[in-house]
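In this notation, each integer encodes one residue's backbone shape. One such record reads:

___
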Amino acid sequence: MKLTIKDIAERCQVGKSTVSRVLNNDPKVSPATREKVQAMIAELGFQPNRSARAMRGSVEPVVGVIVTRLNSTAESQTLSAILSELYSHQITPLIVESQFQPETVQHQLELFRQRQINGVILFGFSQLPLNIIQQWQGHLVLVARQYPDLSCVYYDDHNAITALLDRLYQQGHRQIGYLGVQDQDETTGRQRTESYLQFCQRHALTPNYVQGDLSFESGYQLCPLLLEKPTSAIVCASSSLAVGALKYLQKNQKILPLACIGQNSLLQSFAPDLLTLDFGYPQAGRWAVELLLQQFAGNSATEQRKVPFELT
């Protein structure tokens, strides 16, 4: 029988992450726990996979990180946390950009395979088909998207929009406009827009929304279309859309409460009353590395984690 990290954890009565930390020489594990886990590993003759052996050998493992856009504020926050965690485990990152192109991801994964990359952290997007990435099962963690039988870290898109709307509703707003993203984008687009429409239905509000892309230019261009109808406040699907909306409002000397998902320090400096939502981007990065390290240590179980958010 092929042993896994889960078998070691159950016999030692500790968590899988603890076994992973022992295998990766994490100093946070207490000496007593480390000794117990190492003794069980020796007794059972447990052999981690090739990636785990590389992590403990003289050659540093390499992890490929595929982001969709290097200029994305949200992905930059997640990537920063990923890099910090990888460096702390002496893992070398190789960062590339997909630009939302499935064929680009396929090409990059093939290059990773040729170069014997130990694992991959992939920022998913709606147009990316499962067949391109499932061959990396057991050596891959997805960020922002869920796929069957693949470990991932994803966001609470639906409830995040609801939380922003609830706060504005409590403040007395009944004509809340929404700047969204096209439905082709399943998470930032369709799920967040559906949340807005369902909120309007529950509270008998008249929907007023427009959809574009994720750029601040889109927010600037769409804002006047939204204001063609009575609007007392605006919720934006992303901080980049909020930047565009704020620019339009200021240029036209209009004052409206703004709310958006994600935090942007530059945006908040120009709009100190902006209602923002900490979407947990750094937490997503830390979890992505943790799940990948568990795979390196021999844990073949699929784990999918939803990142918690917090209104700020």
Q: What stands out?
A: The radius of gyration is 22 Å. Confidence is low (pLDDT under 50) at residues 50-58. The chain has three domains: 5-54, 62-155+282-311, 157-278. Residues 5-54 form a domain with the 434 Repressor (Amino-terminal Domain) fold (CATH 1.10.260.40).
